[in-house]
Design goal:
The protein is an alpha+beta fold and 435 residues long. It is elongated, with a radius of gyration of 23 Å. The protein has two domains: 109 residues, Rieske Iron-sulfur Protein (3-layer Sandwich), CATH 2.102.10; 279 residues, Naphthalene 1,2-dioxygenase Alpha Subunit, Chain A, domain 1 (Alpha-Beta Complex).
């Protein structure tokens, strides 16, 4: 368990907090590109790392991310006119380009140079394959974008986002907890209903795996193994990449490239991104990888979401929520048609992590052996934030984008094999950037 001090250190991400300063060293996913569909389109409210910001696409197509409050009198720039390469406040007509520089003050004398002295807080943005990334850090020249393979393969990647009304760490820790897959998501699967020799069969036969966890240059990694055949183990290998990324072990390693991001809007709200691309069709997989574990990344159907509103928390809210108990079906639960009675894998994750409250008090938990990755990753994050604050040490991965060229997934290995060494080449496979 964590002390209250460490729990606060880990979870709070506002400006000036140790963890917030750590996250500002990195590029972060801020806006899905189709949320700003055309030049001079309507601005968008974006709450990111505890700040209220306005995103807008200027006439040339570039994206700006600027403070919400106009530097003149504090009126919201959300109501601004997006026109001719800048966002104009409707209160007094002050206009700001994407860099934040004021370029017009029509309420001031024509000979005044006051506009040259006024600059709004604005953050650099880069758009790559459907994601608008933002850099909220201190460097005049930001580092390179992280080399996430799924974000570097052109337009084929699937991008889905869910608003999660809880602390970012709760969602991220859910990805660290591979054991819950056998219960929360697959608890109603009977061994006799699975095909012998498949990943699904191995999970149903041995719900509780054994764990190996380790620090890595980009964060932490784990391997969870279960007995497969007499001479093999079934391994599920995954990575937690600083500051809030996860590569989960769904499917066979090499079948797909994907990553998740738990991007803090503030301490109590998270945008959960999933970006992925299928590399191998299900029918091309070996027999052991057939079944539910072969499921690839899919975009969530529009009817699973509420209509977006323009509020700070109005984007990507699912129909299933705490207010309707995630549409739990108790009859289906009793009949073991579903272990939880809650439709949907991610909705099941939402129910358990959001029910912990906005920020879970980790001083009350009792962690077991299968929580080893959670323990190690928390320690890694706290150590990185302290090293930045106390020694000025740049956090892992900031200046080495190639560290993010990883793959995760499941596979069978001989029982005598070292799981990390035996998967080195598969984990490091990387497809060249399209175009």
């Amino acid at each position: 368990m964590l002390s209250q001090e460490d729990n606060d250190y880990l979870c709070h991400i506002g400006p000036g907090t140790p963890m917030g300063d750590l996250m500002r060293q990195y590029w972060v996913p801020a806006v899905r590109a189709d949320e700003l569909p055309a030049p001079d389109c309507a601005p968008l409210r974006v709450r990111l790392l505890g700040e209220d910001l306005i995103a807008f696409r200027v006439t040339s197509g570039n994206v700006g991310l600027i403070q919400n409050a106009c530097p003149h009198r504090g009126a919201s720039l959300f109501f601004g006119r997006n026109e001719e390469e800048g966002l104009r406040c409707v209160y007094h007509g002050w206009k700001f380009e994407a860099s934040g520089q004021c370029i017009d003050m029509p309420n001031e004398p024509a000979e005044s140079n006051f506009k040259q002295k006024v600059r709004a807080i604005a953050y650099p943005c880069q758009e790559r394959n459907g994601i608008i990334w933002a850099y909220l850090g201190p460097r005049a020249t930001p580092p390179a974008l992280p080399d996430f393979e799924a974000n570097m393969l052109g337009a084929e990647a699937v991008i889905s986002i869910i608003h999660r009304p809880c602390n970012w760490m709760q969602g991220w820790e859910g990805e660290m907890d591979t054991v819950h897959q056998a219960f929360l998501h697959s608890g109603a699967t009977r061994l006799q209903d699975t095909a012998p020799g498949t990943f699904d069969h191995y999970i149903a036969r041995t719900p509780a795996p054994r764990f190996a966890v380790m620090d890595t240059p980009y964060g932490t990694s784990y391997g969870a193994w279960r007995p497969a055949e007499e001479d093999t183990y079934y391994w599920r290998i995954a990575h937690m990449l600083l500051p809030f990324y996860a590569m989960i072990p769904a499917g066979m390693m090499g079948q797909q490239t994907r990553f998740a991001a738990y991007v803090p809007m503030d301490d109590h709200h998270t945008l959960h991104w999933e970006i992925g691309r299928q590399l191998i069709a299900r029918e091309e997989l070996p027999p052991e990888a057939q079944g539910s574990e072969a499921a690839g990344p899919t975009e969530r159907a529009a009817d699973l979401y509420q209509a977006n509103s323009s509020g700070w928390y109005g984007r990507f809210n699912m129909v299933q929520s705490a207010e309707n108990d995630y549409l739990i079906d108790r009859a289906a639960q009793r009949a073991m048609k579903s272990y939880t009675g809650i439709p949907g894998i991610r909705q099941q994750d939402m129910a358990v992590t959001e029910s912990m409250g906005p920020i879970y008090d980790r001083a009350k938990e009792h962690l077991g052996t299968t929580d080893a990755l959670i323990i190690k990753t928390r320690s890694r994050m706290i150590a990185a934030a302290r090293a930045l604050r106390e020694q000025g040490t740049t956090p892992p991965g900031v200046d080495d984008p190639q560290l993010y060229r990883q793959r995760s997934g499941g596979l069978l290995l001989p029982r005598e094999a070292n799981w990390w060494d035996a998967t080195a080449s598969r984990r490091a496979e990387f497809t060249a950037v399209a175009g």
